[in-house]
Amino acid sequence: MTGVSAAVDRLTSALGRLPGIGAKSAERLAHHLLKCSPEEALELAEAIRAAKQQIRHCQICFHLTEADQPACAICRDARRDQGVVCVVEQSRDLLAMEKAGTFQGVYHVLLGRLAPLQGMGPDQLTADALETRVRSGVVRELIMATNPTLEGDGTALYIAKRLADSPVQITRLARGLASGSTLEFASRDMLADALAGRQPF
Questions:
Q1: Domains 6-53 and 81-201 share a fold
Q2: Which residues 6+ apart lie within 8 Å of 10 measured at CB?
Q3: Residues 6+ apart with CB under 8 A from 160
Q4: Which CATH number does 81-201 carry?
Q5: What are phi and psi of 90, to 5 degrees?
Q6: Which tens digits make up the pLDDT trace of 40-70?
Q7: Buried-state track 123-149, b at ≥16 Cβ within 10 A, e below 16
Q8: What would the CATH number be for the domain defined by 6-53?
Q9: pLDDT tens sequence across 94-109
Q10: N or C, which terminus of the chain has less Cβ within 10 Å?
């Protein structure tokens, strides 16, 4: 912005680097932070600082956990089935699965997906740790819950090929038509998945 101090420019620029925040949104957020009380603004700054200092990746599944807890709350939960592992790309995908409230297994967070054009190769993922976990003999089923995109499907296929010689059952989330939807509004990919994943009536 022109005609404003360098500090405001720096704040706006920093906010604009957040995902989903464009230039206008960054400008609005910057002005909101300048208008709110110092206590409110500093509380946000402190929350960010504390999160960066206190949050780590779980040593088992790579979900987020407190620095003083090597394993996350899900991995520590004795009621969860450690033999069924749901593989997701990011912690936010795990949280979406948990909101459904039906999955009683555990997770493995890949911390990304294969995307060569963005510089994301196998070495940037936690695939090695997943393979070690699977070959430990505890895991019975691996549920591939990567996003239904070209990169997500490619990542799932890569992992399935790596573990093809293991006795673990590898499945993927069902896809296709959502309950209550109509055929005329379904995309070609949705219909193809629905046909491929059809079940006995």
A1: no
A2: none
A3: 144, 170
A4: 3.40.1360.10
A5: -135, 165
A6: 999 999 999 999 999 999 999 999 999 999 9
A7: eebbbebbeebbeeeebeebbbbbbee
A8: 1.10.8.420
A9: 999 999 888 999 999 9
A10: C
